[in-house]
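A quick aside before the break. I want you to see a complete sequence-to-structure record at least once, exactly as it would be stored in a machine-readable document. Don't worry about memorizing anything.
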Amino acid sequence: MLVDASGKYLFGYDLLIQAVAASKTFNIAVKPLDLQIENKLLASSPDDHPNHIATLLQSSEPQILDDGDSFTLDLLVNQKTGVKIVDLVSVSFDRPNIEDDNPGHCRETSRWMR
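That is the input. The structure line, written in tokens, reads:
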């Protein structure tokens, strides 16, 4: 979920990660925000929230990542300027691998799978 400074929901999506310990890989799928989750979030939010949370238009193709790999996901793109808001997703069986590989990366936005 992306929220603004006032806590208003701006964008959301579902990230499905299945760790495969035997091969030290991760099966990744990115999907639009589940409608039931969206409704639950909006029902528990203040009245000034919109009736809908922006999300991805379609699911991405599933992919397999190796331990320690990362990928970026374009969330919002300004068509006039080309400026993008992206999410960097890193996966590892060992948390220090993610933190060491991304110096300066905001800890609260990284994803970690055990």
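Two observations worth writing down. The first strand starts at residue 2 and ends at 3. Residues 2-109 form one domain. We'll return to this after the break.
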